[in-house]
Amino acid sequence: MLVGLAAGCARAGAGGARPSGAPVAAAGPLRLEVVYPESTAVVPRTDSIFLFGNLRGGGGPAQLAVNGVPVRVLANGAWLAWLALPDDSVARFSFVAAAGAESLRAVVAVRVAPRFRPPAGRAAWIDTTSFRPAGRIALPAGEGVRLAVRAAPAASVRLALPWGASVPLVADTEATEVPPEVRAFTAEPDAGRPRALGPRYVGWLPAAPLCADARTACATLVVTGAGDTASARWPLQVEVVDTQFPRVVRLDDDTAGSGLTDSVTPGRAVPHGTYNWFFPTGTVAVESGRWNDQVRLRLSRTALAWVNAADVVPLPPGTPPPGGAVGPVRLVPGPASVALRVPLPARLPFQVTEDDRRLTLRLYGAAADVNWIHYGGTDPFVARIDYAQPTADEMTITLVLSRPVWGYRARFAGRDLVLEVRRPPAIDAARPLRGRTIVLDPGHPPLGATGPAGVREAAVALAVARRAQALLARAGATVWLTRTDSLPVELAERTRFAERHDAEVLVSIHANALPDGINPYANNGTSVYYFHPHSAALARALDRALVAELGLRDLGMGRGDYALARPTWMPAALTEAAFMMIPEQEALLASPAGQERYARGVVRGIAAFLEERAREP
Questions:
Q1: What is the assigned CATH class of domain 437-614?
Q2: Scanning 159, 413, 422, 531, which has the fewest C-beta atoms within 10 Å of its C-beta?
């Protein structure tokens, strides 16, 4: 399972589980170990929970029951249980195990995230854990925030403001929710059914100074019903952003100077959302708001992006907002790529989007003064260059290609922006792997999943990558591994490694696990993830090949916000061929035969993708 992304979403749950190093219980040589959950973990409140571990020793076939429910134990001792989670802050699981003439009993206590319970006998109450938003917000005057809170049903709810006014909150009678991890990782037909959120109230708070410092009073939520009243301070600080003298900032994702980053700050449409923009270090923009550890940038009059506050460096007061005219652009053809050079008035924010045979560069804060577009010859790879001014301060330049996109990258060169577009390699359809440069990334460490029998994802990934490397080299490819031992390698270094070696294809190899609360018996199998459109065909080919080799359920390809699927210079995909937490699949991944099958699936998937690209018009 891919966890711990340096710049992106990470899955929770079993992926971070580690053996405690000591048995839960032992009777003579019979030994029971619970690998997940750990004794120090606090699991989310869900309807059910999975537990897994191993039972070893004894004089014969092992038997295990947890809370009276029989649990299958493999010959290697691995077991997986899926049990109801009681509505309590502590869940206790009673283990009864036997092997031959030996037996043992043990009780494992698991802490569960607390659930708010309305006070008995009160007609008015407030769930103080449900205040949304909470923390510190800064917004320009004229904007505001949507409020939401759980409180007593059929009550009168208002937010009392310190200057004597109040904001009414109305009942959200149709409030439902499907947890994002359920939408993302479950294949059960009924699992995605929305569940009611209970009595919930919503309102709108205009931006005004609120609890911003010791001199500014705070807001109080007041709930009244059936002659009873409850009140609580809303844990929110609001500051007003000065738009007359905008704060100009520069982006730098390595302000600490660690050298371990990718020199890119991701931008999101909502705080902590999925990545939508990739701003190189040095990008300049106007700060227009804050939400705890997130900063909102005003890219143009209509476009906003949220970035990590740690990546934002204020420029001196008085620095004018970036913007201006973009002059003539020039295309510079080369043997392996073509480069579009765009002169900018400043290091403006930009976005590159792709559509099969088109790459569109959108410049924010820019006006087109593109009187000339120089093609630099009659190179047929770029069929046409178009530009447009869709809004007063956004312009686009579109490269229409004669072949589908293979890869691209963008960087600042002084104040110029250089968009380099990679030429597709010349592929022999009969021997598609011959002459290709391929980078394989054995996923983890750091982190990574651990299976019931204690098998580590990082060890499996490296073993599979080595076998795939040998098969690819035998077919004529040049193959590099991002790591060749058990030492940790940071995510940014892995992607830099692939680009340094000019990889034509990048595949990251992993073994899967599930978030808490998802039924592992109903939701396991093979899946492959991509991020950019030009990598979708690679992901599909890998998924088909792995399903054919391993014979597991096809969970399909998906778009996943993973660091090793995000490089743009080459098609890239991340494979999750089997689930480390499923005992049978852990045993498959740990066996030399299973690792060989996984490797063959990777090789056949890459070959099928290359052959498909070789036959394109």
A1: alpha beta
A2: 413
